Amino acid sequence: MSALLEVAQLRTHFLTRAGVVKAVEGVSFTLERGEILGLVGESGSGKSVTGFSLIGLVDPPGRIVSGSIRFDGQELVGLAPDRMRALRGKRIAMVFQDPAATLNPVLTIGAQMALAVQAHGGGSERAARDLAARTLTRVGIPDAAARLDAYPHEFSGGMRQRVAIATALLHGPELIIADEPTTALDVSIQAQILAEMKQLAKQSGTALIWISHDLATVSSLADRVLVMYAGRIVESGPVASVLRAPLHPYTRGLLDSLPAMARPGEKLNQIPGSTPSLLSLPPGCPFAPRCPRATDICRSDPPVVTQPGRMALCHHPLEMAAA
């Protein structure tokens, strides 16, 4: 059986007056049914644009310039807008970072969820409300039937995010793309939502792409991880293997920057410098100006380093150097 999602050499560019911003540059990966894939990297690395590209939400001046996105055997690049809308929300759903921006403040939760159900032929308004109540209960919202008549501002931040997740689950999608949905939440609520998403993926067989800048969050949720930098995947592999023995210096830098890695009273570690402008990337490896292991050879394009189930783009992969 083929993978649920197959992405090959995806390139999404933004054609601006200042030049071409290569936000996603040659991204390739696969996703199996029921698998949870973490997509991590600093702000500006191309994570969110990758997610928006998968679901056809890249607005002008951005566009997919080349590559392939095959979902359950169907090519999505170049798919007619009406056919893409039929997939979006029903078979592929997305949870955005800010639920306050996603939810309409002048409509009740029940009305918004009913509209989402009926947009894909969900039957009567009563049936749509019943489904909405059951789905809210599924994500841990108490007294769900009564809360359908509440407005978004009557929910806490954590509850609004649960509503956004419930809306994504209404049609039992085969794939959910979650774009940093717990960033603004406190740690306890974040942990609850992560546990619920993991359980829901396991129970329903839904595949999940979890976009985050936080490796610690991804480590507790994902099966595999893709590390992005400057629009490229610089490392990929099983999450336990990547976190235990990263191959790419950028992944090592992200791990060392976690607060848990610092001793009390010491300064937190950080990757020197900042992410480069996608309008003027340095030649060769884009991470070279910030990399402690960079040499002259890093001015040329990095080779693909492979191990069983793993990949990295690097002239000086860490584990091999140590060996």
From TrEMBL:
Q: Which Pfam family would be a valid example here?
A: ABC_tran
Q: Which GO terms describe its biological process?
A: peptide transport; transmembrane transport
One Gene Ontology cellular component term attached to this UniProt record is:
plasma membrane
Outline the extent of the ABC transporter domain. Answer: 5-255
Keywords from the named record: ATP-binding, Cell membrane, Membrane, Nucleotide-binding, Transport
Going by the entry's taxonomy, the superkingdom of the source organism is recorded as: Bacteria
**Principal location:** membrane
Q: Where in the cell is it found?
A: Cell inner membrane
Gene Ontology MF, one: ATP binding
Membrane-topology descriptor: Peripheral membrane protein
Give the family per the record: Belongs to the ABC transporter superfamily.
Q: What NCBIfam families does the database record attribute to this sequence?
A: oligo_HPY
- PANTHER family for the chain: DIPEPTIDE TRANSPORT ATP-BINDING PROTEIN DPPD, OLIGOPEPTIDE TRANSPORT ATP-BINDING PROTEIN APPD
- What this protein is called in its record is Methionine ABC transporter ATP-binding protein
Q: Which organism is it from?
A: Falsiroseomonas bella
The lineage, from the top, is: Bacteria, Pseudomonadati, Pseudomonadota, Alphaproteobacteria, Acetobacterales
